């Protein structure tokens, strides 16, 4: 059987060398792990539009610009994902868990201490390598 494959817009929100992360709900795919906020792209939507919509809904910020950091294709046992990861520095509003989810700012050098979904390993590596 073909696995379901979803396209996801993901935002690495950065302010003062810190990155904003949220905790995924236990009822969600990869629940109980930290994430860079974002969500599934709708049909016909480009990455920036999806990210703008998702970050407004999940984090309560308005973004004005973003730049592509990387793209990751990953196969979980139950689902295949294509993550379009964008860097977001140009935004207004105070980032918070707008859907009631726990959230926090984390220093880039501490990102590897958090439990993320497997697909996120490469993102953390890239962000930490960029610092050096
Ligand atoms: N947002 C987000 N999703 C990720 C990350 N890493 C990762 O593997 N994913 C996977 O990407 C998929 C889609 O993300 P999502 O659950 O946020 O989608 P969504 O906001 O549209 O959720 P919904 O289905 O509740 O409407 C999930 O299967 C999730 O496990 C990440 O860092 N951030
Ligand atoms: Mg989401």
Automatic annotation (TrEMBL):
GO MF terms held by the record: 8-oxo-7,8-dihydrodeoxyguanosine triphosphate pyrophosphatase activity; 8-oxo-7,8-dihydroguanosine triphosphate pyrophosphatase activity; 8-oxo-dGDP phosphatase activity; 8-oxo-GDP phosphatase activity; metal ion binding
Reactions mediated catalytically: 8-oxo-GTP + H2O = 8-oxo-GMP + diphosphate + H(+); 8-oxo-dGTP + H2O = 8-oxo-dGMP + diphosphate + H(+)
Entry annotated with the keyword Magnesium: yes
Entry cofactors: Mg(2+)
Amino acids binding Mg(2+): 38, 58
GO biological process: DNA repair; DNA replication
SUPFAM superfamilies linked: Nudix (SSF55811)
Residues of the Nudix hydrolase domain: 3-129
Broad enzyme group: hydrolase
Pfam families hit by this protein: NUDIX_4
Binding annotation for 8-oxo-dGTP: 24, 29, 35-38, 120
Keywords for this protein: DNA damage, DNA repair, DNA replication, Hydrolase, Magnesium, Metal-binding, Mutator protein
Enzyme Commission number(s) from the entry: 3.6.1.55
Similarity annotation: Belongs to the Nudix hydrolase family.
PANTHER family found in the cross-reference section: 8-OXO-DGTP DIPHOSPHATASE, NUDIX HYDROLASE FAMILY PROTEIN
Protein's name in the database: 8-oxo-dGTP diphosphatase
Native species: Pseudoalteromonas maricaloris
